[in-house]
Amino acid sequence: MLGIVVALPVESRTLARRSVRIGQTLALGADIRLHVAGMGPERSAVAAASLQRGGIRALVNWGCAAALSPELSPGRLLLPRSFILPDRSEVSCDSVWWHRLADRLADLAPVTAPVVANETVLATPAAKRTLHRETGAPAADMESAFLAHWCLRQGIPFVAVRAVADDAGAAIPAAVLAAADPDGGIDPLKLILQLLRHPRQIGSLWRLGHQFRRARDTLTTAAARLLPETFLMP
Q1: Rounded distance between C-alpha atoms, residue 212 and residue 77, angstroms
Q2: What is the pLDDT of residues 126-148, one digit of tens each?
């Protein structure tokens, strides 16, 4: 059985027809279990352990990532061969499985360079530039490197499929950060109130939403290729 860990409900909608709340597991057919974990390494590790207890024998991390390199545009597919942890050590995905996915998704031209872990939201272009300069990684997320390391210790094959949701020059509006809940979701009422107080941020939010839709479309396309074949699971 295959396990898929996704951080946020909005990302899970590229895989599932109905909404899945944070903390829930959904069966995508007989052999796939999708768990929406919430953002960050601790929540993703809890989700992976729960899926392991349920009998999975391989794990996918699915969702969005932030571009660090100015060469990466929103919507670009990421299929990293390895992941950089905060201590700058590197852990690889399952090589045989990765090659299967790379062949299946080749026409989408996935970026295969390492993705670096970041334990907090990269809210400013300056923060992205710093992490890119320090690691050389073209993109970052908050879960995949930690899950890769966890799977290595557990002896579980692991791969990650991500899409760029914000480019290197994009900032996360302060209104969004203020409206975020502890799991990384957004309280709609808080967001509306923040935007009423700071209407100049509406343009930045619209731009971010447009970029996310491009990432969502890419993930939806990849899901249509991979779900019917159980992600070519080893």
Answers
A1: 12
A2: 999 999 999 999 999 999 999 99
